[in-house]
Amino acid sequence: EAQVTQNPRYLITVTGKKLTVTCSQNMNHEYMSWYRQDPGLGLRQIYYSMNVEVTDKGDVPEGYKVSRKEKRNFPLILESPSPNQTSLYFCASSLLRGSGANVLTFGAGSRLTVL
Amino acid sequence: GEDVEQSLFLSVREGDSSVINCTYTDSSSTYLYWYKQEPGAGLQLLTYIFSNMDMKQDQRLTVLLNKKDKHLSLRIADTQTGDSAIYFCAESPGANSKLTFGKGITLSVRP
Fold it and tell me: What is the 3-state secondary structure (H, E, C) of chain A?
């Protein structure tokens, strides 16, 4: 089944304890992206990647890192989490085409709480 | 920068039509999308429209685009309880471009 898989789905952690949220897709998509969803703020892009070893900042990159060493994986790293990073995180991917819509496939989400 | 605006909440009766509206500011928007988020799940693409189209119909869904007013709407005919979800409008200025999402509208369908 074509899908984007995120882990963990739920995590409670404490301030300053490094964590990684993994994202993997099995559709051979070039484009991958991380979003956070917060009440009243909608979806905001954190980082995105157009291909292996190519990553760029989105709208809210502060406090996050990403890497794209392989096409299928795009982990989100929080080196020193803080309570304002408590949020619902989504990974998404899409096939880049010469023309056409950027049709994103989303993972099921990872709910992170930082105490 | 780009901005996409939506109302926050809509309640309809089962069997009625729902109309969800969205406005955007980026005049270079080429593609406009509607995504649906069911409780506890990620977003799923419902449909999208290319900016040279005024209307797109897909079963119970009708998308209308007024490019002059930068207004997009999604009509759901014969709304069912399974349509209760958050609906996001999004736009992108071109192929392979970043999507800018609205804040999402919660659609509640009452029996």
Answer: CCCEEEECCEEEECCCCCEEEEEEECCCCCEEEEEEEECCCEEEEEEEEEECCEEEECCCCCCCEECCCCCCECCEEECCCCHHHCEEEEEEEECCCCCCCCCCEECCCEEEEEC
Cβ of A58 and B98 within 8 Å?
yes
pLDDT at A97 over 80: no
pLDDT of residue A36: 97
Per-residue pLDDT tens over the stretch B23-81: 998 877 789 999 999 998 999 999 999 988 899 999 999 999 999 999 999 999 999 99
* A9 in reach of chain B (CB within 8 A): no
How far is A81 from chain B, CA to nearest CA, in Å? 23
Rounded Cα distance between B31 and B48, Å, is 7
B residues 71-110 near A, CB within 8 Å? 88, 92, 95-99, 101-104
Give the phi and the psi of residue B42 in degrees, each rounded to 5. -80, 180
